[in-house]
Design goal:
Elements: E1 2-3, H1 4-12, E2 19-24, H2 27-41, H3 47-50, E3 51-55, H4 63-70, E4 79-84, H5 95-107, E5 115-122, H6 132-137, E6 142-146, H7 151-164, H8 171-179, H9 185-199, H10 206-212, H11 217-229, H12 233-245, H13 250-272, H14 277-284, H15 288-298, H16 303-322, H17 327-340
Parallel strand pairs: 1-6, 2-5, 2-6, 3-4, 4-5
Helix pairs in contact: 1-2, 11-12, 11-13, 12-17, 13-15, 13-16, 14-15, 16-17
Family: Belongs to the DNA polymerase HolA subunit family.
Catalytic activity: DNA(n) + a 2'-deoxyribonucleoside 5'-triphosphate = DNA(n+1) + diphosphate
Keywords: DNA replication, DNA-directed DNA polymerase, Nucleotidyltransferase, Transferase
Length: about 350
């Protein structure tokens, strides 16, 4: 199993295999690497004829994919067949998904040299890891894990995006910009576009970044839980919608809300045991300013209400994995239930 950087290095060196399995949380980053391969292999003139795409969610049989792979490319040495959102690569194993996976597994060694088959699977949340199915395929072909990028690698990538827009950004401003955003390239590109439009022809300043990105993810979750504690239904729903608009997935928001209630429960329990603020900070191993926020926020809840909120979060976590109901609606119901607990 290789990471996205290793994949990119191989493509730039012209080392190209005829099958790739991608997995990871950031779909935009995966699609970005697939586009890199497309540009390396296919000419612009015949891209539409030699690039075939299938929606993994709607596939009932792998036969159409196999037929596309077996068809010769038009005026090119190779063609590319992409199966996007191949959810049959996840742990869930109902009859249809198991069949699709088995058909892919059996076909991998038979892919003709005139075709490159790409299948990618997007993780549902931050806690998901590559499934046993993906590890089994790693023994037969190239599996690329789309881990988040951080530090200098992220800063370099972001700086290049600014450069493509003919916009320069200083090192201090670049570090600040990267620190205020989740490492999701789709969100980052949108925020770069907004920042460039905001400053127009002048240089980017720290004040501009703060003006557009004045809140971190943790602050948003504190706000959401505060509104739950104050029983402000409309405002809490609006806060949820704002988080989802920024690109956070319902599963990720649920994870953060659940984590927040767990921390609040620990803090509330410690306060009732008459522990000092310094002792609580040492117990939960978080910075003092975060501890202060948690202590203040815990005053809005009783221990029993925090315990009930955690039970509700666990219930909806299980429901989201098995229900076809819209995730946004499920999150709204979760928020309403925690307020009325």
């Amino acid at each position: 199993m290789i990471n996205l950087s290793a994949f990119e290095d191989k493509i730039k060196k012209g080392i190209i295999d005829n099958c790739y399995i991608f997995c990871g949380l950031d779909e935009e980053m995966i699609k970005d690497k697939i586009k890199l391969l497309q540009k390396k292999v296919l000419s612009e003139n015949f891209m539409d004829l030699n690039l075939v795409r299938f929606d993994g969610d709607t596939l009932t049989s792998f036969d159409p994919v196999i037929n596309a792979c077996e068809t010769l490319p038009f005026m090119e040495e190779r063609k590319i067949v992409v199966v996007y959102r191949g959810n049959f690569l996840g742990d869930k194993d109902d009859g249809g998904k198991k069949t699709l996976y088995n058909e892919l597994n059996n076909y991998i060694k038979s892919i003709p040299t005139t075709c490159i088959l790409i299948v990618y699977y997007v993780f549902k949340d931050k806690r998901e890891k590559p499934s046993s199915k993906i590890y089994a395929l790693d023994k037969k072909t190239i599996v690329v894990k789309g881990d988040k990028i951080y530090g200098r690698e992220l800063e370099s990538k972001v700086k290049n995006i600014f450069a493509k827009k003919d916009k320069d950004i200083g090192n201090v401003e670049l570090k600040l910009f990267c620190s205020l955003l989740p490492t999701d390239m789709g969100i980052i590109e949108n925020e770069i576009e907004k920042l460039c439009c905001y400053v127009l022809d002048r240089e980017i300043k720290k004040e501009d970044i703060y003006a557009l990105l004045n809140k971190k993810e943790d602050d948003d979750i504190f706000d959401l839980v505060d509104l739950i504690g104050d029983k402000k239904v409309k405002e809490a729903i609006n806060s949820l919608n704002e988080l989802m608009y920024k690109g956070d997935k319902a599963n990720e928001i649920l994870f953060m809300v659940e984590r927040q209630f767990k921390l609040l429960y620990k803090v509330k329990y410690s306060l009732e045991r008459r522990m000092s603020r310094e002792e609580i900070c040492g117990e939960i191993k978080l910075p003092s300013f975060i501890c202060e926020k948690l202590i203040n926020q815990s005053n809005k809840f009783t221990l029993s209400k925090l315990l009930r909120a955690l039970e509700i979060c666990l219930h909806w976590e299980k429901t989201m994995k098995s229900s076809s109901l819209d995730k946004k609606i499920q999150m709204e119901l979760l928020i309403i239930e925690t307020m009325t607990a």
